[in-house]
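Honest question from a wet-lab person: if I give you the sequences of every part of a complex, can you actually get the arrangement of the whole thing, not just the pieces? Trying it with mine:
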Amino acid sequence: MARLTINGQVRTVEVDPDTPLLWVIREQVGLTGTKFGCGIAQCGACTVHVDGVATRSCVLPVGAVEESQKIVTIEGLSPDSSHPLQKAWLALDVPQCGYCQSGMIMAAAALLEQTPSPTDADISAEITNICRCGTYNRVRAAIKQAAGETQAG
Amino acid sequence: MTAHADIPRSRLSRRAFVVGSAAAVGGFSLGFHVPLGAARAQAAPAAAPEVNAWVVIRPDETVVIRIARSEMGQGTLTGLAQLVAEELGCDWSKVTTEYPSPGANLARNRVWGSYSTGGSRGIRDSHQYVREGGAAARTMLIAAAAQAWGVPPGECRAEKSVISHAPSGRTTTYGKVADAAARMPPPSAVVLKEPKDWTIIGKPLARLDTADKLNGRQVYGADLSFPGMLNAAVKACPVFGGRLVAYDAAKVRSMPGVRHVVRVDDTAVAVVADTWWQAKTALDALPITWDEGPNRALSSADIAALLKAGLDAPEAFVGNRQGDAKAALAGAARVVTADYAVPYQNHATMEPMNATALVTAERCEVWVPTQNGESSLAVAAEASGLPVQRCEIHKLHLGGGFGRRGNFQDYARQSVLIAKQMPGVPVKLLWSREEDMLHGAYHPITQARMTGGLDAQGNLVALHMRISGQSILAAVRPEGMQGGMDPVVFQGLTATNPEGHLGYAVPNLLVDHAMRNPPVPPGFWRGVNLNQNAIYVECFMDELAHAAGVDPLAFRRRLMADRPKHRAVLEAVAARIGWDTKPAEGVHRGLAHIMGFGSYVAAAAEVSVAADGTLTIHRIVAATDPGHVVNPAQVERQVEGSFVYGLSACLYGECTVKDGRMEQENFDTYEVMRMGAMPAVETIILPSGGFWGGVGEPTIAVAAPAVLNAIFAATGKRIRDLPLKHHSLA
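Yes, you can. This is the full assembly:
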């Protein structure tokens, strides 16, 4: 059994402790905005925040996560898509197929928490998620737009 | 206890929503509803009658436009809706969309036409009839208002969902007359707007499908959940052509959550469990015996040797012949020759293959991310053994397609073959990334021998392009072959084909293909054969220009006097990149152009190569002339994205064969482009009008040759076999 704090709610799940957090979030908790892409922490589609740190949940055993640790998924980033990144993403119409975008947004949100005004080099170094549709330049532009809004606000 | 009890069920009842229009238009449903997002579920009111097959208008003025093609990121949902809305004359802000089900299409004599979403055909193959559908609906809406008012329809006009009768000053709205319009006879003919009068087509409107992709609400096939659903993980023989002999189910049957271990077909076994992770864990522990079959020793070296032998084989299919290339080469002042090679690629969609099937003795339903709902329907019928009229497909937006999910419905077939072994239980099959990489429909492998003859003045007088390699059609659509020849191999190289004809007038030209088909399944991969062909032609043109001592742009232009549209895009990128100016210190440029999927495209690249060989692609300028442009913002996005696809293949991508199977099983070995390597992309749209060209694919083809030519300018190194990662640029 595992007790997890996800998007501010404590969840109790019956699960093998070796199960990756990704599959607990998707299959036991039922939050499917966090995606499965590779299973080996290469693509970043499964990115969630664990205590504010962007974490690739497909390789993190649920048994290694404490109840005291705050897990945030894309569904918990904001209640109404009002996070500056979500607003910038909408304004720039960033997604194409959209499958990688939850992970992109979560990685970007963690970046902005750490580095409110990221440089191009910061973005290139920190956002290593894979997008096969090729949204990278718009992802970059949206991160900068959101950073600008956050700084201005 | 079982983990099954933990699967949440409540979200289904909260968000119940009938997918597509199956229920509304005469399809059927077994009662399982798909959660498609709270936002849309809230907007779903009582059913309204359709005005015609393409348009439903609700009393609240919502305009539902039916889209037969599939949205996989390329923006076709928005573009096709713009085409219908333009002729419908509706208020764009009220537009929403839905997929009519493939079963409904069958029942209604294919009223929505083709569902195939590939070959950059979504808009160019259907613009006429979807616009006519919108125009017909407008005509019926106006007729309904005119009848109610007792005035001639010709005195009424419609704009932004408002119908007005100027002589009497009366107005009404689409929502108010839609019910009556549905009972009007459809017009026998409609007149479409002139392009100059378009107000929705040609505008950079926002996509209709963005909001749910920002907060996790968009439900992909991999996300589906139904009451009582089980999850399947599958493993097929990793060796091409191999078979499943046996497996020891007893070893895993007691593992947590495991419900069934089943033979899928001759090649694959599946574990079905309460959760997918349990199914995958048990499958990994399952002892399996394979018959690896006749290809067990096949290697990439074998395949390369097979293709190499085709480079000078006497027999070849001729795709384009002008003059007498062989004689002209024999008499040329100088002959230049070079061999090129391009490896297998995997589509590597971010969402792995998946499908959810529910089979009973009476019905088969499949929820599937598909580029061709009609293909999925046919596969459901075949795999279930039920009449097609008893099958239904529920389409979902795709987490990437790129050609993998159209012709190839192997994953949908597997889902049905598994689910029919547990009737009445919905089963979601999801492939691991490894399964996805090992069982692709690979971008076919080809090589080319390019032989060019220059006269004493450095003019190209003869060109022989010999392609050797795999045919997609021979493997997957033999009915498309022409006397044994695969015309797809000659994309962009033909004399007159409006899909893509060669941009050069070479007086003596021979383009031919020695077909060599290794036992590796090929498929349509975004850009298809245009990708390789553009590398071969455009890199070799660069070689010839340098051999002739002529600027690469000037050399090309000599051959393009009667190719104004090819020339226009090439000259546009050259002008924008500043071809006639000196680049910044250490920066070098390359050019490429081609025609494919009905559009003219070109690219210019700026790169630098550091002393240690590190490549930086700074900037790419792209140009496209697709004739008419439906949504220029979407075109820009597609062009930008196409460079990621093309450059991923150029820089890193290859699937290599060892012991009869692919060596690359995940993104750690099948590298793709990430943010840090992405150049700035500027897109020039040059819509010359009068034709409808494709957008999603053609610019992929010019990405690699433009960059490779720039690398030559930077280093003097000619890279003729890809990917680039195998070459030192130092």
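Two things worth pointing out. Helices of chain A lie at 21-28, 84-91, 101-114, 120-126, 136-152. The CA atoms of residues 54 and 119 of chain A lie 18 Å apart.
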